[in-house]
Amino acid sequence: MSQPYRIEVLTGPAILPHLAGLARLRVEVFRDFPYLYDGSEDYERKYIATYAAAPDALVVAAYVGDELVGAATALPLADEPEHVKAPVAARGLDVARVFYCGESVLRQPYRGRGIGHAFFEAREAHARRLGRFERIGFCAVLRPADHPARPADYRPLNAFWRRHGYQPVPGLTCTMSWRDIGDIAESAKPMQFWMKAL
């Protein structure tokens, strides 16, 4: 029988003691396709610390025993950088009324156990408690179907996201940059917005 997991919802300064573990987890999981992210723990610690400083942000952490096995982030879209929120505003949506799910990372052995569902539930519940959001959404990287690093058994998460009520917003994308494994410099990647009404 698999060991049960527990979910911890962290906000504000409560995030800070978890920075090192969250940074390691993100670097590890984001190396996989489709992100192929060649990250550093130092950068990731600084990035997660921004959630501790944002008043309405949260980190949802999943533990099995004492092991951190997954995490998800979220905050108001208005607190995201301009290159993320500008395309949403350009579509006529009120950025101040959109809650944004940053990233979800989960170690492979713990997938399929309901943790991903718990991540969405915690973030949506938080957005509803705040009481000023009409929509919730996230971005997913767009990689070509014939990408050379795509594993033969890769299954995109589109069906999982749709089960939670999210739909891709046609034509609504932004661009994010990071360094892929094996590259010497960062490159821009198109990111598709998925949203649903709260």
Overview of the molecule:
This protein has 198 residues and is of the alpha+beta class. 28% of the residues lie in helices and 31% in strands. The chain has one domain: Gcn5-related N-acetyltransferase (GNAT) (Aminopeptidase, 3-Layer(aba) Sandwich). The termini are far apart.
Give descriptors for this structure:
198 residues, alpha+beta, Aminopeptidase, seven-stranded mixed beta sheet, 5 helices, 31% strand
Please specify the SSE layout and strand pairing.
Blueprint: E1 5-10, H1 19-29, H2 41-53, E2 58-64, E3 67-76, H3 82-90, E4 98-106, H4 115-130, E5 135-141, H5 158-163, E6 167-178, E7 187-197
Parallel strand pairs: 4-5
Antiparallel strand pairs: 1-2, 2-3, 3-4, 5-7, 6-7
Write a short abstract of this structure.
28% of the residues lie in helices and 31% in strands. The chain has 198 residues and is an alpha+beta fold. The protein has a 7-stranded mixed beta sheet with strand order 1-2-3-4-5-7-6, with helices on both faces.
Radius of gyration computed on alpha carbons:
16 Å
Oligomerization: single chain
Molecular shape: globular
- In total, the number of strands is 7
Separation of the first and last Cα atoms: 36 Å
Instruction: Count helical runs.
Output: 5
- The CATH superfamily appears as Gcn5-related N-acetyltransferase (GNAT)
Helix and strand sequence:
EHHEEHEHEHEE
Strand content: 25-35%
Q: Main sheet: which strands, in order across?
A: 1-2-3-4-5-7-6
Classification by helices and strands: alpha+beta
